[in-house]
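step: validate -> pass
step: tokenize input -> pass
step: predict -> running
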Amino acid sequence: MVKRYPFSRLQQALLAVSSCSSLGLFTPILAHAEDDTQQLATITIKAEAQHTAYYQPQVNLSGFTQKNIAAIPASISTVTAERIADQHAKTLTDVVKNDAAVGDGYAAIGYYPNFVMRGFALNLGSSYLLNGNLIRGQQNVALENKEQVEILKGISAIQSSMSTPGGVVNYVTKRPKEIHSVTVEADSHGGNRVATDFGGFLGEDQQFGYRVNIAKEEMHPYVEHANGQRLFGSLALDWKISDRSKLEFDIESQRQRQRSVPGYQLLDGTTVPSGVSSSRLLGYQSWSKPVTDESLNTGLKYRYKINDNWTANLIASQSRAVVDDYSSFPWGCYSSICQYSGLGNTFDQNGNYDIYDYRNPNDTYITNQFKAGLNGQFNTGTWQHTVSLELSQTYKRHAQYNAINTLVGTGNIYTNSVTYSPTTTLGNHYKSLDSQQTALNLLDQVEFNTAWSILAGGKLLHLNEDAYNASGNNIRDTNFNRFLPQFAVMYQPWEKTHIYASYAKGLSDGGQAPWFANNPSVTLAPKHSAQYELGFKQQWQDLLFSAALFDLKQDNQHTNTSNDFVKDGEQHNLGLELGLQGRIGQNLDMTSTLALTRSRLKDIQSSEYDGHQTQNVPTVRLASYISYQVPQVEGLRLLAGIQYSSSKYANKSATVKVPSYTVFNLGSAYNFRAYGYENTLRLNVDNVFNKKYWRDVGSFFGDDYLFLGTPRTAQLSWTVNF
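step: predict -> pass
step: emit ->
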């Protein structure tokens, strides 16, 4: 909570500060202000800029020589810790709803989420970062220790080596500071959470800093039989070795155990289910177990300031996720009760489906990364260079069982399931992927004058990757070198105005063929992508307006040809993104985004997939959230939000569509002091009008699924700082 002072008191404070020789930087500002009363008013706003609820202009994404969003030639949005707290965000699903360019792409309750950005599915192995380091996407990343979440839209080869062209998500951890707080929280479905945040400094010169976050959550979703638990702990350490060197260490561990909630399938492949209950767990069997997801993310960074112009750093990180999946899973309808006219890998026309005993324990994903970087500035004549150089080594490994997936019975979407007997056989454990990536990043921002500059460079990547089948046989050996260029021209006609045009190429990890294909679980070949982008950014005091027009292509789209999943065709997306984030006036914080996307598959063997909007990509999506400080009541903020999505296709052939939807959210936050302690009460009601809608109609492992949106949910939290 920012305490606001009358203008006269702020003026006196600034004058007092200016009298101190050690802070003589303020003197020219005040001298100018004596002749310009309006300029002083601007200073008043800037004094609170860093404390705005919904806007943080500084980002931590690697690969850019600039740190301010307004000056970076890319489309970036940030979600601050205060906005996360205001919205009672628990998972990334709750965070990405703030950006219209991002949508769900199979984000089932109790499972790790998947997302679509700019119309492309993010990759679980390369699209998620923690402090700029790769982490596994097969986890629900905790938010208790996150200072902000940064969303970079578009090709991100510099940031993540191999990643989808849609973009990346970077989590930024909280650094040490003096804080002691406890948060308790409950929701209308019976869930509750307790979280602590402790930090401080030690040592004679306060050179040692620590930050500890612990959380325990009892999850009670709106779906029956899907309760779960989550335990989380993290530690952040800073050691200021000297004025020139600093060591940062982060480690976080989480164990989540919750029964997964499967999605619906189209009825006979032609009809969207209707009249279904949002609380029913499809295919429920008492012997099935909750999904257990254990994750560990750790990083160590050493930074050394060589001189005033050059800084070096060394980074080591590891991300590990282990998933135990033992589920009763509804899929298709091949049993005798089924009535269908299609292939049978959807629910039948009456809502019948088959129930499978699915077991995939100890599904292990590991990513190790080592990086050495050098950043600095130098001049060549009148040209000023800002250089970023980084050498990295990335190792990825996936080990899994030859999973069980056995038919055990049937169910219906309108009735509760009867109990069947499970199966007992489990296949052998094997290594399915072994990947090593060596990369050299070089970017140079060249400023020719105050108006014109370029950003030029790219990534030289060497990939050595092997894929194996369940018998341990090598089925793919990929070994090649690629140069992925990144280039941008930037024009600054006025101090707060930035215009850019950019070009970039990317390389993405290949997916896996589904279990029912002739080539099951085969890790497919990497994909290539290219992007052109034209952008505009305008800063008005603490408000940033941005616009980005992009042209994005990716080859090697996977298609089912005679039940073989092969690389085929190209996806071509055109889009316009508009964004507004920051402070409007003295009392209103706002973030608003609009995304218009045209997405098409081209030159693909399956002609029914070609020539229309691709599956699960709406042409229009809007997200807007505000925080209003009530002038008459000190410490009280009113919160409101809206999410809109136009209709979207629920299958690849574009024969079935789900309707558009609009969801409204309301809330409040109240900061007050009681018994010498700072307190914050927050209340949210999401989906105020209890809108029933299909939030996600994406494809996962070759199958189409539909997920209902969350019904009306109230959440209340109380935070005490002591």
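step: describe -> The chain has a mean pLDDT of 88.
step: cleanup -> pass
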